[in-house]
Amino acid sequence: MQTAASPIRLSELNQLIQVRLEDAFRDQQFGVIAETMGISHYPAKNQCYLTLIEKCDSTNTVKASMRARIWGNSYKCIQFFEETTGQVFKDNIQLLLKVKVHYHVLYGLSLEIEDIDCNYTIGKLALSKQAVLQKLLDDNPQHIREVNGEYITSNKQLKFPPVIQHIALISSAQADGYADFMHELIFNRHNYTFEVDEYFAPVQGVDAHKEIYKQLVRIYESGIKYDAVVLVRGGGSQLDFQAFDTYLLSRAVARFPIPIITGIGHEKNESVCDLMARLKTKTPTKAAATIISHNRSFAEKLQYLQKQLILKTNEIIISQELVLNTLRTTLISESKDLLNQEKQFLKAQMNTAIYVAAKRLQKENVNLLKIKFNLQCNSENRLKSEQFKLQHFTNTLVHLDPANVLKRGYALVYQNGRPITEVNQVDVKAPITTRLYSGEIESQITYKKKFSDDN
């Protein structure tokens, strides 16, 4: 191995490198795009140490790295970055940095960060979001369209039921947003009750959007007729909400057949899911409050309708009472008039009946007198005629009296207590009794002879 004629120490070599680098990069600033890693903060010293890396787009492997630091007055750029973007300065953030090359004899090569370009971070997120929105419009014309700057989706066109009561909630079980939503919903001042089915999923991280998407699929496949699906998470930076700007999840929200309410806790900006959902709210608490307000609105409508119903009912009752009173007065008046008319009519009828009856009685009296006279005349004549007949019959009876007949010399013949009128009736062997006017004679028959009809 060959060595230099006069070897030098490592520190001397490092010093030589330091001089050469300082000469090469003196007063030069570079804009570097890199991703943060291994950040260590020392606020009391206004110092921050980290590693900047660059990853391969296709393999996601690190293809370059370098140590970096933020010192002194430059440390304020971290606070400014967080306030401007709403993003915490942490690992795995891609940034545009203003840096200087620095070489230290002991610590080696590093970059000294003098400033962070907030617009790059905000713009990168905006460009990514806009690209997702455009892809949604291009790929889903039947479900998503833009009208006057507003996104009209199938989900936005769904109607909430009058009362939202059965809810499918998607959130992380550990998220503050989940607790805030449930607390606001359960302890509402109207004492409304809700049935909440929980579908837990991580709400931030590389694959968060895939897990949330899976929960939407589960809700759809359950076949349960939920009144609404609520998607919530707590606050955070813009980069924490990247899951809600993804094409996969946003498309699912836009096409979902149940109304979706978002309460993603993103106060400053809207996520793509917010733009696709039926109703967006700023926080989980406001999502719950909106549901309660929706139900309260329905209850107030019912109360208003109840009051209107009572008022209208009272108005109808009062008006009908007036109508009834008028009808009653009219009925009484007309009844009295009708009764008077009928009374006069009946009085006239009665007078007519009395007159007709009197005339009829007079006529019948005349007829009765005629009949009486005729009866008297006919009775006397009939009586005389009947008396004459009776006398005639009396005389005939007297004349025909057996005693008178016997008195004239006739006699009655009896045999065995029966009168004998025919010779054939006589039993020669039995005695006969002959009754005369003055007595009876009992005889014995010795001979009988029947006269012929000619004798």
Can you give a write-up of this model?
The structure is a single chain. The chain has 455 residues and is an alpha/beta fold. It folds into 3 domains: 10-116, Nucleic acid-binding proteins (OB fold (Dihydrolipoamide Acetyltransferase, E2P), Beta Barrel); 126-297, Cobalamin-binding domain (Rossmann fold), CATH 3.40.50.280; 401-455, no CATH class. 46% of the residues lie in helices and 22% in strands. It contains 9 helices and 16 strands. A 5-stranded mixed β-barrel has the order 1-2-3-5-4. A 5-stranded parallel sheet has the order 9-8-10-11-12, sandwiched between helices. A 4-stranded antiparallel sheet has the order 14-13-15-16, with no helix packed on it. Strand 6 (144-147) and strand 7 form a beta hairpin. Helix 5 (208-222) runs parallel beside helix 6 (247-255).
CATH topology of the largest domain: Rossmann fold
Domain count: 3
Instruction: Name the average pLDDT.
Output: 84
As a percent range, the share of strand residues is 15-25%
Number of separate strands:
16
Helical stretch tally = 9
Which consecutive residue ranges, at least 5 long each, have pLDDT under 50? Answer: none
The main sheet orders its strands as 1-2-3-5-4
Q: How can the largest sheet be summarized?
A: 5 strands, mixed, barrel
Output the radius of gyration: 69 Å
- Give me the strand/helix succession: HEEEHEEHEEEHEHEHEHEHHEEEE
Assembly classification: single chain
Q: Specify the CATH architecture of the largest domain.
A: 3-Layer(aba) Sandwich
According to CATH, the homologous superfamily of the largest domain is Cobalamin-binding domain
SS-derived structural category: alpha/beta
**Class of the largest domain, according to the CATH hierarchy?**
Alpha Beta
From the N-terminal CA to the C-terminal CA, the straight-line distance is 217 Å
Shape: rod-shaped
How much helix is in the residues? 40-55%
